[in-house]
Amino acid sequence: MIEQLRKKLTVFLSSVITMILATMSILLFYAVVQEYSNSTYASYSKDTNLLYSYLNQTNIIDMNILNEYNTKNLNIDILRNDKKVLSTEAFKESKAILQSASPYMQSEYWDDYYSTINKGDSHRRFYTVRYDHTDYWNSYSIINIGGTYYTIHTVYNNALISAYKIKMSILFLIVTVIAIILLSIVSYFFMKKILIPVNEAYQKQDLFIAVASHELKTPLAIIKSCLNGLSGNHLSPADKDYLSTADRECNRITDMINNLLTFADIKKSGRENFKDTQPEDIIIECYDRFEPVAIQKNLDLIVSLPDDPLPLCCMDKDRILQCISILVDNAISCTTNGHVSLSVSTQNKRLCYTVADTGPGISDEDKPHIFETFYSKRNNHKTHFGLGLSIAKSIADLHSAELTVSDNSPQGSVFSLTWNYSLPPYTGKPPLLP
């Protein structure tokens, strides 16, 4: 249970870390890209304004000056009467962008043009045009150079910003994933430290159960001996009823103590008793044990064995027999009409024991809890204490097996015990059990 709790807490903490880091990364990525875009646009506006100021003060177009803007990823087109006079052709998309983002296509261009000619005002317009899924920054200015009016059209190579976004997104993704993995690993080992007191508390609880159960056996044996000594023919019917009730309750407490001792013993046991066993032997012995009980309740106990012998499986035979016996005992207790069936088979190199009954079945609400300790809604509280299925689950965990329950058709329940034929090597340490 501690290991399961550790994994769940690690998954939870890792999920929280993932959400926090992902959110922080997205916000930081957006801030970095936005800052880069804003600073780039400010630089573009500054360079463009300097260019327009220079051209306003000169009488000739110096191509060498214009070519210097190529290093700034800025394309410059000199237009006159809707015709291109000069172009720096700074990047390959500039020609296509000029066609789709021509200043002559802008709604305010002709107002600016006639205002410049008639009043001598200088107009500079900045606008954005989308081309091939990228927003390109554009600007134009109408300038008198040597007595001739030219339209200066500039385009910034915004594809560089798109490439920067892609590069930064990959970088942020890699850094975030690495950070999440590292923090998840740290969380796993951190949880191990955190759960040390919880693990110690569970160990003390198991020790208390084992010690208390052993200590209770002696006074119970004495009480039962005294009750046997008081029985006789001289007792009245009322006295006999009292003694019978006391003796029955002593037997119930004895059964519960034996179950607690079994539960504690399984938790601290290892795999030193694992041996190669014929899987069918478990079913046969279980059938011999419960056939009289089934006949007494007028139930059919059906056994299904494979036609060919199954391969030997490494297991603790006594524990597996105990596990299947618990499942059969529960099935018989809960079934009043019909049958209880036992079977063993192999499915995808996995050994599978099944115990099916035609009882009332188990509700979906109870299914997640039936393997919990002292959970006994399915059975009569007078004869069952909610330890049987918990013990069966502990035996399954000891074998690294999976114990599940499902609905039987048309009614009833099916319990399945499934595990791989190949078990991990015995390390001498008992596994962590719920």
Describe this structure in words.
This protein is an alpha+beta fold. It folds into three domains: 66-158, Beta-Lactamase (2-Layer Sandwich), CATH 3.30.450; 196-260; 271-420, Heat Shock Protein 90, CATH 3.30.565. It has ten helices and twelve strands. The strands form three sheets. The protein has a five-stranded antiparallel beta sheet, sandwiched between helices. Strand 9 (339-347) and strand 10 form a beta hairpin. Helix 7 runs parallel beside helix 10. The longest helix has 55 residues, at 2-56. The radius of gyration is 42 Å and the shape is rod-shaped. It starts with a helix and ends in a 14-residue tail after the last strand. Mean pLDDT is 83; it is low at 423-434.
In short:
The protein has 434 residues and is α+β, with helices and mostly antiparallel strands.
Keywords:
53% helix; 3 domains; 5-stranded mixed β-sheet; Heat Shock Protein 90; Beta-Lactamase; single chain; 10 helices; 19% strand; 434 residues; alpha+beta; 5-stranded antiparallel β-sheet; disordered C terminus
Give a topology summary.
Elements: H1 2-56, H2 63-67, E1 74-80, E2 83-87, H3 94-100, H4 109-119, E3 124-131, E4 134-145, E5 148-156, H5 159-194, H6 196-230, H7 237-268, E6 275-277, H8 279-296, E7 300-304, E8 313-315, H9 317-334, E9 339-347, E10 350-357, H10 388-398, E11 402-407, E12 413-420
Parallel strand pairs: 7-9
Antiparallel strand pairs: 1-2, 1-5, 3-4, 4-5, 6-8, 9-10, 10-12, 11-12
Helix pairs in contact: 1-5, 6-7, 7-10, 8-9, 9-10
